[in-house]
Amino acid sequence: MPFVEFVVLPVISVATVVIAVAMFASPWCVRGLARARSRGRLTLFGRLGDRQQTRQMLAANSRLSQSHVPIALMFGNSVLWTVFGVASREVVMTLVNSIGVLLSSYFMLVFLLVSSPAEQRTLVIHSALALSWALGLVWYVWVRPESTQEMLEACATLGNIGVVVTIGMLASPLLDLVPNTRALASHRRPYARTYSLAIARRRAKGKVIRERSNRFLNGQLSFMMWLNSLAWTLYGTLQRNIYAWLPNSIGLALTTVQLLAIYVYREPRGLPTTTLAEGDSK
Question: To 5 degrees, how large is the angle CA 240–CA 242–CA 246?
């Protein structure tokens, strides 16, 4: 239909780019969003929390308890889909994920500048692994194949890997909902102390369910992930691209569960909220 092709698809494509780029910055904005919300200053995208958090880290010359691992994973996922997008000539997918590569590279550079020497060594190792992953993908798709057919097969394999990686990333926030059996198993030893076992049992129940509080889940991040999954599902459906709509339709269901958990375990109005440190010390 001409209306879908010339009106709906361009609108969905632009919306997908904007939402996906905002979601790429969301893991970096979690603390900024939490601070802004606690101070009553929460506005669109947490007052551009990524820039705010970057300035705070550089000013304090400290990580501010932030981990670089999510950023490294974001880099690996973005590189994967950038290579796939270029190989399959998907303009929107290439544009979105190349921006993700640039953002994650910038964030990793900030981490390198504010880390201690010991942290820098770990960061360099993880950066080398991420770079090796990127070069390996380029070799697998463009250098190794000796014919166009082999390149198409490599691209399809890369897409299948990307589906699994994307579903895993969208499902990762649900880890705070499910029981942590490792926490309990690690304490089931003859020399484990009684109080240590009791703490492990409490932690094994899952933070959100155990505390009946949604403070362990970030509402803004979950909502951005939900919007991102919806946009990519619509885009993939219109483009008939299974690598776009399949993982994101599953991600749409997973992020819906996150939003429902945030609603079910919301803080009752009029009651003082408990800090994260207080919740973990119980």
Answer: 125
